């Protein structure tokens, strides 16, 4: 799906990461040693096809070799784009991966049906009957609003000085559940910290593509993950838009608008924008945001149906936040 070149173990040589996809269903079948009876197949292929991401280190003598460090980030989901960058400025490259194929209304996913049945319904030879079958399967799945690799979250892996990776996307507020595609990291505001730019390609509740921009406000390295700077006064951003669209299901009261989800959504403390009002009046929203419970606390994410699409340009605010 994608690849990244970086020095992952800080040895002065350029390594590379190849992004693939893993399958929880295939992993379970391989672990249990279950195979379709009466069908001749190369039993090594299923595991190789669904291994996930692969990390290769440069050798001193030349060439590359698989790295055990890659095991920490191998199974990130139905992965697409990635960025390998030092987000916390500790000298070691971290990894952000965009995930998700097709999220629809139902959490019932087609993937198990594929590995248990449909993969055996055709061969590499063109077959008109098989084409009709798969087209009907597609129409049936879409008609039932059935997901395929859906409800997966983006992953943010912090490099533990070349010894391991830990996944902290939820804590930093960048574990988007919307199907995501491309990722770019750059210091957009010139503060010495790499920010995130990513795109989504969503099928539900409406087909749309969005651009998300996240500002990095991490103040310490991964050993502390302190967000103390969120308590400081925040200047009015260079651009903002205070309008919130209605809740997707019109099911929540004014309390549902306690967060201003920007570009167009944000989830947790480390990326969460400040409190806003649907009336468009700023009031004391900046002060409320600055005095919030950011240091050492992680708020629970909003339920998916309480997330709001936000129109137009939005403000950049927060600790590694939109």
Shape: globular
Lateral strand order in the biggest sheet: 1-2-3-4
**What is the H-and-E element order?**
EEHHEEEEEHHEEEHEEEH
Given helix and strand content, the structural type is alpha+beta
Q: Estimate the strand proportion.
A: 15-25%
Treating each run of at least 4 consecutive H or I residues as one helix, how many helices? Answer: 6
Strands, count: 13
Pick out the low-confidence regions.
221-322
- Specify the helix fraction band: 10-25%
The overall average pLDDT, rounded, is 75
**Major β-sheet annotation:** 4 strands, antiparallel
Radius of gyration: 22 Å
Helix and strand topology:
Layout: E1 2-6, E2 15-19, H1 24-32, H2 45-49, E3 54-58, E4 64-66, E5 79-85, E6 94-99, E7 106-109, H3 111-116, H4 128-143, E8 146-147, E9 155-159, E10 165-167, H5 169-172, E11 180-186, E12 195-202, E13 208-214, H6 285-290
């Amino acid at each position: 799906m994608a690849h990244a070149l970086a020095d992952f173990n800080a040895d002065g040589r350029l390594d590379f990461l190849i992004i693939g996809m893993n399958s929880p269903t295939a992993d379970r079948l391989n672990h249990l040693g279950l195979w379709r009876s009466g069908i001749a197949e190369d039993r090594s292929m299923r595991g190789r096809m669904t291994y996930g991401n692969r990390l290769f280190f440069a050798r001193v003598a030349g060439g590359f070799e698989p790295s055990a460090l890659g095991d920490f980030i191998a199974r990130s989901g139905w992965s697409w784009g990635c960025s390998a960058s030092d987000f916390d400025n500790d000298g070691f490259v971290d990894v952000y991966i965009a995930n998700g194929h097709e999220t629809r209304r139902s959490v019932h996913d087609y993937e198990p049906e594929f590995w248990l049945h449909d993969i055996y319904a055709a061969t590499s030879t063109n077959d008109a009957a098989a084409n009709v079958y798969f087209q009907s399967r597609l129409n049936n799945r879409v008609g039932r609003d059935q997901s395929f690799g859906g409800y997966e979250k983006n992953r943010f892996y912090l490099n533990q000085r070349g010894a391991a990776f830990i996944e902290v996307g939820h804590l930093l507020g960048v574990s988007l559940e919307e199907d995501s595609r491309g990722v770019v990291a750059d210091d957009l505001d010139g503060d010495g910290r790499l920010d995130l730019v990513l795109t989504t390609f969503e099928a539900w509740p409406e087909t749309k593509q969005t651009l998300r921009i996240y500002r990095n406000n991490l103040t310490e390295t991964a050993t502390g993950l302190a967000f103390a700077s969120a308590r400081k006064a925040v200047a009015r951003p260079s651009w903002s838009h205070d309008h919130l669209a209605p809740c997707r299901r019109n099911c929540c009261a004014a309390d549902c608008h306690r967060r201003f989800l920007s570009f167009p959504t944000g989830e947790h403390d480390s990326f969460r924008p400040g409190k806003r009002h649907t009336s468009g009046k700023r009031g004391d929203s900046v002060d409320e945001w600055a005095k919030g419970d950011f240091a050492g606390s992680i708020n629970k994410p909003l339920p998916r149906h309480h997330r709001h699409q936000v129109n137009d340009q939005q403000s950049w605010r927060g600790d590694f936040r939109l």
